Each structure stands twice: as C-alpha cells, then as structure tokens.
Amino acid sequence: MNINQEQLLIFKTVIETGSFSAAARVLGKVPSAVSMSIANLEIDLDLKLFDRIGREPKATAQAMILYEKTEQLLVEINQWKQHAHALSSGLESSLNIVVVTELLYTKWTDYVVLLEQKFPSLQINIFTAPQEDALKMLMNKTAQLAMMFEREVLESREQFVELSVENLVPVVSKTHPLASLDVIRFEDILKCRQIVVASRDKSIKPELLYSKNYWRTDNHHSACMMMLKNLGWGILPAEMFDENPHLQKKLKVLHLSDFTPKFEYYVDLVWSRESDLGLAARFLIDHIRNQRIHTK
Question: For 257, which DSSP code?
Fold first, then answer.
C-alpha cells in the first residue's frame, strides 16, 4: 500500500464537491487525473470508495468512514512536514527551561507563550528548582535555559541577558514572637530560626542565609507553609503577597531598623557557553536582547 498526500487530498475534495469534475476544478486538474487517482487509491486499499452509477459518483459507506479520518490525517502530515523543515533549520527536538522557584510568580509564562506561537511543534519542558540547582542543570545540560537571579560570582561557562528586577522581602507569621516587636534589629532575626529555600545538595551553602539555626526546603511554597505554622521567618517574593490577599492577612513583612528590608535582585535568562543551542533558544535570547534595546 503506497498512499500519498495528494491522493488523500483528491479523495477528500471529491467527497466534499460531489463529483470528479468539480474536484478537478477546485484542485486545478483535469477530470481524468482525478478519476485515475481515485481508481488507484481503490486498488491500493482494495476497497470500493465510489459507486459510479448515474452522472455523479456516490461515496460508499466505507468511503465516508475514511473521510472522517482524512482531514486530521492531512493536518498531521502538514504538521510533520513543518516540523521536519524546522528541524532541518536547526530547531531543537525539545527545549528544557528551568525557572528558579522564587520566580514562579513572575511573568515567565509570557516567554513560553511566545515560543509556542513561534514554534508550535516544539516540545517545551518546564522545571522548577532552587537557584543553585538551576545553575547545575544548565552546566550539566539537563536544561538549555534558566530564568534565575543574578549571581554574586559568575561561573566561567555561563552567559546571560537581563530580564527584569524582582523584590524579595523578609516575612514572618503575625503570631510569631518577632511580629510583636516594635523595633526589629538584625541580631533579633539572627537568633530566630530561618526557613531558607536552598539546593537539595546540602554541601551547597544557601543564598540569603542569615541565621545560624535554619531549616531548608527546595521551594518557596513549602517555605511559606512552614512560616505560617510559626516554624521560623524567611525571605519570599514580594509579588507573592501582591497576588495573594490571604497571605497578607497572615504574614508580616519584617521592618528592620538596621537596613531596608527589601532585597532587590536582577533576574537573568542564563545559558551555558558550552551548550549547542537550537533555533528556539537562540530566538528567545535574541528577542529579549531586542526588547532591552527598544526599552532603553
């Protein structure tokens, strides 16, 4: 059996127009070519598709069953061709993006939507991880791109373009002893247990760690739940409170007397110099670079 896309298109058009001659006009062919294509298709399928009684062919019950599948099959063939063309142009078979957990409340999905619109056949996989783990995923090529906070020391293999600025704030449950203090000094928070979002690898020192007594978790959702249970204070994304009035009622931003209780961080799109980036990853990098140029 050797059925091609043109045969399927002719078969579909004959059924929709009701005749070989009408299908020929729609397709820009002579009626004999349409008739011969249908005859060859019947031979390949070993199936009668049209009753040729009277002036116009009449589709058989078997033909109508196949017709229901034809439209989707033609769409899938076109998608397959488009995807093959994209792959030949350098499109990666899949793109893995890791988003640092504290950034889940930002507009990172806008970039995923952009990629989907530009490359609809691309498989995109999104991972979330603490800052340190996200960088490890880039370096071991588990992920091709990462949306993460600025780093104090750049790894020699990493390259980045700046995305935005985000704020983190120190918070505690409103029923925690720290919340009752009128003046909170730096040494006050050092004495209390800190809930810190950190790598699963305990050999890596967490960022934004202040207290000697601390518990670790790998995401800010679980950190928030522990803070709500009075298990410690911690640092969470300010945007998390802007979008959740429930948290505003139960958590208090710590106003420290010794320094401004707001940690302003630049957010970067990061990749490894050693990774062979595909078409989609390069497109996103260039898009963000162009955005920066036009917003300056």
Answer: S
